[in-house]
UniProtKB/TrEMBL annotation:
The chain crosses the membrane at residues 195-214, 221-240, 252-276, 297-318, 330-352, 381-401, 833-850, 857-882, 888-909, 930-951, 963-988. It is found in: Cell membrane. The keyword Methyltransferase does not apply. Gene3D superfamilies: Multidrug efflux transporter AcrB transmembrane domain (1.20.1640.10). It comes from Nocardioides aromaticivorans. Keywords: Cell membrane, Membrane, Transmembrane, Transmembrane helix. SUPFAM superfamilies: Multidrug efflux transporter AcrB transmembrane domain. Belongs to the resistance-nodulation-cell division (RND) (TC 2.A.6) family. MmpL subfamily. Pfam families: MMPL. This is RND superfamily putative drug exporter. It is a multi-pass membrane protein. It comes from the Bacteria. Residues 236-351 form the SSD domain. Its main location: membrane.
Length: 1007
């Protein structure tokens, strides 16, 4: 049995290397000290190199990042990769000094060309009002920087902005710099500050545990010395790799590297010390014992380190910077510590052993582990069930995990960015500075009625989606649709104007009736005049035979002639007035016809949606009929009547002249009888003319009466038609003004309006080919609901554009919620890649070292079960116990470490089983379990404590990762390694080593 003998390893290359290290122990120690000092002097500190990294929180090709770049290019914000918010507050109300200070920041920040590329100009009145709270107590402005969110380069820029805004702030004015980028900067700062605290706590706890285990000073000092040098040289080598651009490093690389190196380095040292003590108890002299320990455990330590290296290297294939900057850093530091552990630890043990400083002491735990091993050997089924049941119950909680992507949660409430969020929440609507932006890129200018109508329709659809509080865009810059641009508004406006016209026509209807009555009276008078003229002609014939009565009747006739002259003059003036009135009426009707023509033209050719709306289409048809009736019937009739009245006026002029001539003739007749015959002839002639003129007057008056009666009859029909149009268009307004109608029509003249153009610059690019829609949700922008909603909003808008002019437009969404949504997708895909890679890598290492498919599969199954149980326990403690969601980083980081380190412990146990029980005997498995119980327990507890020390930091994320790995390691140590694996191995027996045969396993174990 390999562990029961001294020596036996002298013929291998590993043994020769171990003896060389022990013989040159002082040189080895000196070389490592010198190398560590040189590296830390020549290479900048890891934090400095991490600060030069530009890796964003999500990849540059993430949809949200592509949209940010497109929006920045289109709206000319100077190449901003991210934005921060300067928020200010005075509870008593902003003073004039505060307002001047806020406006001066625009100039002061713009001067910092190295850090700031864009400042929202709140000196503009429209922006100043929008950026000031309604209560007048707070104000904010956006500042664009070139550092991407999550990139360490943004840390310097946020710090520079904070220095500028605090430098000149008036007394009593609270000023905070916040926003997602500032939050990540605060998270990085807190992490850096936590590293020192975590390191001190970790070393202190490890030292305490080592003193309790070894009850001596030398061994803990040796272990701590190796771990300390390992951390120093590991950080330096990682910094050098980052400086030479072999891989990127970040602040999180340093924090996790510290904890893992301290834990793993301590484990490796403890493994070597345990074998060294075992050889010393067998009487092997110190130098040889150190060499044998390095030879015997070197393979296990190498296998353990390789599993961690390969598992963490799988993180390089992840898309997220958090993973692909952390994985390679941990892998390199573990590789460096592997070499250091296999050389420096044996050298220090040999040097201390010569002086008697590293002698073993009696362990009371050996008997306890022997009893546990015997119990498992005697009752393997019970022990298997006793270990599987709690692990399975905890693992059953794994599906209940609710990961958080809220970058604010890991930070304490007093972090500046969190104070800024609280300030904004007190004075502004939710998500005022954290909207989602939908970016629409087309191949043509969008500033036309049809495209704007499509954007408005999409915005209206988004506004109806659950969780959307407000939508702002070119068609609704304040969040409310432009009232004048809706079909409802325009239909109502037309209806109102037609209503006014209808009222005016109704008033004019009475005048038309009076006109018809007057024409009737004129017709009657003209008929009477014609009859009188006929009788005058007949009387003239009797004059020749009644000359005796001539003298008496002459005077009366002369009086009648005077009256006729006066009456004919009145008739002429009335006909002229009638003609003027008819002309005026025709002009007014002409205006009505022109107005209705414009209305019909607007609805027929300029409205995008009227043809789609049955109500609007019917109204348009009714208006057309009214317009054509007025144009083709009423208006020509009025014009003809006016011309007839003019003719009548001219006819009455001839009549008046004849009567005057009659009077002159009568006067002449009265002057002398000698002219009687000639006077009679003249009188007869004039009476004939009078008779003809009276007939013309009667005919014209009759036509006038008919025309005016037709006008009077048609006006009520016109009034009723206008009333129908009014009712129809007003009904259209009521029906089209519903929430889902989406009726939109913006006249082309509005596009050139100055106020509209000013607002459009916020939502449409200068070339008009890019538009954006700001969507404000009613839930936390960092929450899962907002992330899911950003994806749904994108689908709504793309669906709205299907089959339209914007069908081929590029639509993307960005903002905090969209970035978190990308983060969720990338983290899930990264976890799948990392998990698959880590499992394959660890399985291959186990297969190579154990040369058994069954053992490799069994160990992989146990570590996966242990990981599931660890996550389940974290869900129970954090999610349900403390009410805090697990951070999205926990699942991936914990998987890599637990699978790799858990496989290490199982590998150490299984290799010992391979030595003690190559035939699968229960007794040999019990011996292996008892022999490794103390060392694996010590290593597991130390590693778990080093990870638990991450809780000493103020960043919840790091604490959750440390807690999850710690409980997973403890489950591995006390349940999986102590009960589950031994019980499973006992039940499998020699089948555990398949496809090896017992004689092969025995030969390898004795090699």
């Amino acid at each position: 049995m390999g562990m029961g003998t001294a020596g036996g390893d002298t013929g291998t290359k590993a043994a020769g290397f171990a003896r060389l290290v022990v013989r040159r122990a002082a040189w080895v120690v000196g070389a490592w000290l010198a190398f560590t000092v040189v590296m830390n002097v020549a290479v900048p500190q890891l934090e400095v190199i991490a600060g030069q990294d530009s890796s964003p929180m999500v990849p540059d090709d993430a949809p949200s990042m592509v949209a940010v770049e497109a929006m920045d290019e289109a709206f000319g914000n100077g190449g901003s990769e991210s934005y921060i918010v300067v928020a200010m507050e005075r509870p008593a109300g902003l003073t004039a000094a505060d307002r001047r200070y806020a406006e001066s920041l625009v100039t002061e920040l713009a001067k910092d060309k190295d850090d700031v590329v864009f400042v929202q100009d709140l000196r503009r009145p429209e922006l100043r009002k929008a950026l000031t709270s309604k209560d007048g107590q707070a104000r904010y402005l956006l500042v664009g920087i070139t550092g991407a969110t999550g990139a360490p380069a943004s840390m310097r820029q946020v710090t520079a902005v904070r220095d500028i805004v605090r430098e000149r702030a008036p007394d009593g004015l609270t000023v905070e710099v916040t926003g997602p980028t500032a939050t990540v900067v605060d998270l990085t700062t807190e992490t850096e500050h936590s590293v020192v605290r975590i390191t001190i706590v970790t070393i202190g706890l490890i030292a305490l545990i080592l003193f309790l285990i070894y009850r001596a000073v030398a061994i803990p000092l040796i272990v701590l010395g190796v771990v300390g040098l390992g951390l120093g040289v590991g950080r330096a080598v990682v910094a050098w790799c980052g400086m030479e651009d072999f891989f990127a490093v970040s602040t999180f690389s340093g924090s996790f590297l510290t904890a893992i190196v301290l834990g793993a380095g301590t484990d490796y040292a403890v493994f070597l010390v345990a074998r060294y003590h075992e050889q010393r108890r067998l009487g092997v002299e110190p130098a040889q014992a150190a060499a044998i320990a390095a030879t015997r455990v070197g393979g296990v330590i190498a296998g353990s380190a390789v599993t961690v290296v390969l598992a963490t290297l799988c993180m390089v294939f992840a898309d997220l910077g958090f993973f692909n900057t952390t994985g390679p850093a941990v892998a390199v530091s573990i590789a460096v510590n592997l070499v250091l552990s296999l050389t420096l630890t044996p050298a220090l043990l040999a040097l201390a052993g010569k002086r008697g400083w590293a002698e073993p002491r009696e362990s009371k735990a050996a008997g306890a582990w022997q009893r546990v091993a015997n119990l498992v050997a005697a009752h393997p089924v019970r022990m298997l069930a006793a270990s599987l049941v709690p692990l399975a119950l905890l693992a059953a909680l794994f599906p209940l995990v609710d990961l958080s992507y809220d970058i604010r949660e890991p930070l304490p409430d007093d972090a500046e960015s969190n104070r800024g969020y609280a300030l904004l929440a007190r004075h502004f609507p939710v998500n005022e500075v954290l909207p989602d932006y939908v970016v629409i890129q087309a191949d043509h200018d969008l500033r036309n009625t049809r495209d704007l109508a499509l954007i408005e329709r999409a915005s209206a659809a988004v506004e109806q989606h659950e969780g959307v509080a407000l939508v702002r865009t070119i068609t609704r810059p304040t969040g409310e649709p432009i009232t004048q641009a809706s079909v409802a508004y325009q239909s109502g406006l037309i209806g109102d104007r037609l209503g006014e016209a209808k009222d005016r026509v109704a008033k004019g209807a009475g005048g038309a009736e009076q006109l018809a009555d007057g024409a009737g009276q004129l017709d009657d008078g003209a008929s009477q005049l014609a009859d009188g003229a006929d009788r005058a002609v007949a009387g003239a014939d009797r004059i020749a035979t009644a000359t005796a009565r001539l003298s008496r009747g002459m005077t009366k006739l002369l009086d009648g002639a005077d009256a006729s002259v006066t009456g004919a003059g009145g008739l002429r003036e009335g006909a002229a007035s009638l003609a003027d009135g008819l002309t005026t009426a025709a002009d007014q009707v002409q205006l009505a016809v022109d107005s209705l023509g414009l209305v019909y033209d607007a609805l027929a050719t300029k409205s995008l949606t009227c043809g789609l709306d049955p109500a609007c289409r019917q109204a348009r048809t009714g208006i057309k009929r009214i317009w054509e009736a007025e144009r083709d019937q009423l208006l020509p009739g009025l014009r003809e009547a006016a011309r007839g009245a003019r003719t009548l006026a001219r006819g009455t002029g001839d009549l008046r002249a004849g009567l005057r001539q009659l009077r002159s003739g009568l006067a002449q007749a009265r002057g002398g009888t000698q002219q009687l015959a000639a006077g009679q002839r003249t009188f007869a002639d004039r009476l004939d003319e009078l008779s003809g003129g009276a007939d013309q007057l009667a005919t014209g008056a009759d036509r006038l009466r008919g025309g005016t009666e037709q006008v009077a009859a048609s006006l009520p029909e016109l009034e009723e038609g206008l009333a129908v149009a009014v009712r129809h268009l007003r009904t259209t307004r009521r029906e089209a003004d519903g929430a889902g109608a989406g009726g939109f029509y913006l006249p082309p003249t509005a596009l050139s309006n100055q106020s509209f153009a000013s607002a459009s610059r916020l939502f449409v690019s200068e070339d008009g080919r890019t538009a954006r829609i700001a969507v404000l949700g009613d839930t936390d922008a960092f929450g899962p609901e907002a992330a899911q909603r950003s994806e749904e909003v994108l689908d709504i808008i793309e669906t709205s554009f299907n089959g339209t002019r914007l069908d081929h437009a590029t639509v993307a969404v960005t903002g905090m919620a969209a970035t978190n949504n990308d983060l969720r997708h990338y983290s899930q895909s990264d976890l799948e890649v990392i998990a698959a890679g880590a499992l394959v890598a660890v399985f291959l290492v186990l297969l190579l070292l154990l040369r058994s498919l069954v053992a490799a599969f069994a160990l992989m199954a146990t570590v996966v079960l242990s990981y599931g149980a660890a996550i389940g326990l974290s869900v129970l403690v954090w999610q349900y116990g403390l009410g805090i969601q697990l951070d999205w980083t926990v699942a991936a980081i914990a998987f890599v470490i637990l699978v790799a380190v858990g496989a290490d412990y199982n590998l150490l146990l299984t290799k010992r089983m391979h030595e003690e029980a190559p035939d699968g005997s229960a007794a040999g498995i019990a011996r292996a379990t008892a022999a490794t119980g103390g060392v694996i327990t010590s290593a597991g507890v130390i590693f778990a404590v080093s990870m638990m020390a991450l809780l000493a930091g103020r960043v919840t994320t790091i604490g959750q990762v440390g807690f999850t790995i710690a409980v997973g390691l403890l489950l591995d140590t006390f349940v999986v390694r102590s009960l589950l694996v031994p019980a499973l191995a006992t039940l499998l027996g020699r089948r555990l080593w398949w496809p090896q045969r017992p004689e092969q396993a025995g030969a390898e174990s004795g090699a």
